[in-house]
Specification:
The complex is a heterodimer of chains A (195) and B (193). Chain A is α/β, with parallel strands linked by helices. Helices cover 37% and strands 20% of the residues of chain A. The termini of chain B are close together. The chains are: A alpha/beta (195), B alpha/beta (193).
Chain lengths: 195, 193
């Protein structure tokens, strides 16, 4: 499969970077073609400005404000997101990538009368989400796991009907140990090798 | 009270922009001292940088890159947020406000690896927001935007602080009637805030 890996962390040698490298290594070993989109490295601007907001509802595919990102979405048959969970959600950088790139006309069409949304990302059959959380698992679920749900429900709803999702998180990062991190990396490796 | 109003929408003439002006007017009329923090107008950069991440837990120096925003948050007695829900969450510019300004030593402290909330100067919270989709659609996803306010924000501010969460769902099919009803609700809530 052609897999777009969307990666978001400001520190090049962070644990998230190790997760990203492990995931990409396993995916390639399994014969997948991968493309890495490193949002901090390319200096992506996550803020949707006025002109873009005004054009949003009447967007045409050939007038997308970020054509190279639209092309990544058209190319991908699967998506893997790697990022740290901050305040239970996606870092602003990644949130803004969704806001600006996942627009009408290329990812969904909306019928303004019925409110029904027609997914346009049906060529994506699998969504993987790998993250790190400071909070414990029970509390993350108590607050609704907003970051996870944005991707595994919100984004997934725009993909293929039977799109599979994989979610992996290393919780309690602030008290993590070399052992817990190593264990997590080997789980990522095993899961991604079977992606 | 000193009320910090956080607003996040790029278009001033939008419905959210209109709600923002109503919030400011009503709170001022009520006699509050209002600090209007319009994140788009102030060109806030929501990206937590590499240096900020590396110095994140360094209480004191960690506020340097956003000192003005931290001071305004600490000076406030109440918080009102005005924004649209996009992709089941805050617009990136507002999400980044939390990422960069709600720092250790500002909104929480770490004790033995556990989080201790400390934004106790905030004694009242109001949220005015809009959703594109219906309430049912939001509920099926677990309505994360509501939970992040009612569960996460609630434990950070002063315990027992009153919260009001006002949301206009189904904006894509809204009518003049639904919008003006919502405006009255917002006005009423802010008039007695």
């Amino acid at each position: 499969m052609r897999i777009l890996v969307v990666y978001c962390h400001p520190v090049p040698d962070s644990f998230c970077a190790a997760v990203r490298d492990t995931a990409i290594g396993a995916l390639q070993r399994a014969g997948h073609e991968t493309r890495l989109l490193d949002l901090y490295a390319i200096g992506f601007d996550p803020v949707m400005q006025e002109a873009e907001r005004r054009a949003y509802n009447e967007m045409c595919a050939d007038q997308h404000p970020l054509p190279e990102h639209a092309e990544h979405l058209a190319w991908a048959q699967a998506l893997v997101f790697v990022y740290p969970t901050w305040w239970y959600g996606l870092p602003a950088m990644l949130k803004g990538w969704l806001d600006r790139v996942w627009t009408p006309a290329i990812t969904f069409d909306i019928n303004m009368e019925s409110g029904v949304i027609k997914p346009l990302m049906t060529h994506v059959k699998k969504v993987g989400v790998i993250t790190t959380c400071g909070a414990p698992m029970w509390w993350s679920y108590m607050v609704g796991h907003p970051g996870m749900r944005t991707l595994t429900r919100g984004i997934r709803a725009l993909c293929a009907k039977r799109c599979k999702t994989i979610f992996m998180a290393h919780y309690l990062m602030d008290t993590s140990t070399a052992e817990s991190r190593g264990l997590f990396l080997s789980k990522v490796d095993a899961k991604m090798a079977r992606f | 009270m000193r009320v910090l109003v956080l607003h996040a929408h790029p278009v001033a003439e939008s419905f959210n922009g209109h709600l923002h002006r109503i919030i400011l007017e009503s709170l001022t009329k009520r006699g509050h001292e209002v600090d209007d923090c319009d994140l788009y107008a102030e060109d806030f950069d929501p990206r937590l940088t590499r240096d900020e991440r590396l110095g994140y837990h360094d209480i004191g120096p960690n506020i340097a890159p956003v000192r003005d925003y931290v001071d305004r948050l600490r000076d406030a007695d109440a918080l009102v947020m005005s924004y649209p829900v996009w992709n089941f969450g805050y617009p990136a510019i507002l999400k980044g406000y939390f990422d960069r300004v709600f720092l250790p030593g500002v909104s929480f402290e770490m004790r033995d690896g556990k989080v201790w909330p400390c934004l106790h100067n905030i004694k009242k919270v109001g949220v005015v927001t809009t959703y594109g989709g219906s309430r049912l659609r939001a509920l099926l996803v677990g309505d994360p935007p509501r939970k992040i306010v009612n569960r996460v924000l609630r434990v950070i501010v002063k315990p027992g602080a009153p919260f009001s969460y006002l949301a206009h769902y189904d904006m894509n099919r809204s009518t003049d009637q639904t919008r003006s009803a919502f405006i009255s609700t917002v006005q009423k809530t802010m008039n007695s805030f």
